[in-house]
Each structure stands twice: as C-alpha cells, then as structure tokens.
Design a protein that fits this description.
By secondary structure, the chain is of the alpha+beta class. It has two helices and six strands; from the N terminus they run ααββββββ. The longest helix has 24 residues.
Length: about 140
Amino acid sequence: MPERIYGKTEGAREVLFHEVKRYNEHQVHSITKEVPVIRLEKAIREGKSLFRPFKVPSPYESTKDIFCIREERTTDAYRKVSIDGIELRVPGVDPYEKVELGMIPDKETGLTEIRFWHKGKLLGTQKIKSKDLKRMHL
C-alpha cells in the first residue's frame, strides 16, 4: 500500500514540475501577453525588478549568523554561559556581559554550532552534540 502512495506522489511531482516549467518558459500570459520568464529577465535588465542580490548584512560574517536559532545569555563570574545544563566558555568577554548565541543544528553530523556574539563582534564558535540540547530535537 505505501508503495502505491509513493508512486502516485512521485508521478504528481513530475507532472507539476513539467507544468510549472511549461507555464514559466512557454505559455504567453493572458494579461501581460508575455512569457513569464522573458518578462522577468526584461524587468531585471531594465532595473524594474525588486529582486536584489543577497548580501550578508554587517556585522554578520556568514548566512549562519542570519539563519540560526538565537538566544541571549549573560556570562557568569567565570565568563561562561549555560544552555540546557551545558556550560560553555565565552572567549573575549567580561563577566556578567550579555552575549547572543546563534545556534545552527546540522542533522548530518548531529552537531550544533554555537556562534557567540557580543556588541556586533563574533567572539568564537563551539560545536556540541545536538542530542544534548533539549531545544534542538528537530
């Protein structure tokens, strides 16, 4: 039974892919009288498109700093923060300072990279097992 459902889903996906391609690249739109992909390319050439190249905004250094799970913590007297009972040393920050943690889980490795930020500056990174973080069970 599951094989039949899987086969139908894959078949529907293939039909949908071809229909989207046909519509975007071959069909003349009834209102604009243009093929959608040609219209988009023309708008980009003429600077009339809202599409812009993606740039990582300052002070961030990577897309990891943008697309991550963020939490704020305050360092203790030993310059450490705690998350789900795990203590992490934060380099280059004074005791009792607020730091932002950017957490990036990686399903393939089973690790979560934690990037430490303070006042717009990346202080360092650490990797820990995702299974040790209660919040990372995705």
